[in-house]
Amino acid sequence: MNNSVLICGSMAYDTIMVFEDYFKNHILPDQIHKLSVAFYVPELKKNFGGTAGNIAYNLKLLNHPPIIMATAGDDFQLYSDRLNRLEIMQDYIKFIPETHTAQAFITTDLDDNQITAFHPGAMTQSHQNSISAIAEAISLAIIAPDGKDGMIQHSLECYRENIPILFDPGQGLPMFNQKELISFIQQASYISVNDYEAQLLSNTTKLSIEEISKRVMALIVTKGGQGSIIYSGDEIFNIDAFPADKLIDPTGCGDAYRAGLAYGIINKFNWEKTGRLASIMGSIKIKSQGGQNHAPSINEIENYFGENLG
How many distinct structural domains can be found in the chain? Predict the structure, then answer.
């Protein structure tokens, strides 16, 4: 497989429940010390998610076959069946007996406030996978949120094998201390974070955004509806957010954006072009609920992009 992208990250189920009222009407601030409350949730949806799953799904939309390295539990068959239908390789998804696949349980009220419980399950065993097992030639490895030990191990293994790394710590960033994050920066070719994560990365490492950007080939900072900024060498590229006619759900938009980034990097697009494709992928995703329920054709993506993707 040419120009293969390896995605090291989580596979997860996202169970989303809608409470048709407001949390504030049922949570008493002066009784929070003995909180016991139940929410009646007539609407429930179970979505396929996880950072590796979402990024892989979006790369597949771009007609680029992804390679996933992840861990999953005894309840993974439903997800596995879906990957088979999508023709996404599962050779490096390791099953951890007597565990659950990682999953989030999200309850949302009518103000879009959320109460989330996350169970990492098999994800905590991601270090049981090794880059040495990969038979394919890898052009880019994405180190996305996963078990802490696995993220550290896989980044180091890729670095030692001279595989370019896109470090995408996401919600996993607070797990790491200064020394660990500086090691990730040293090993990475590219770093992608949102604006909050960029500030947290700077605060933890004691390095400015400019100092971090000088240590990698590119630092990409996303800013939601305000677009993104790509720092590369002495250049700064401001990428506009691609307009979306509907704003349904931001879940998975960052993963869709990363898929566009990866596609641009391995196809040697310039940064303006790479950023535009990434922005388009995020914009397409936001019009659908969940991380993998958007299904544009490659022709639709190319029409937005203004040229063939090949």
Answer: 1
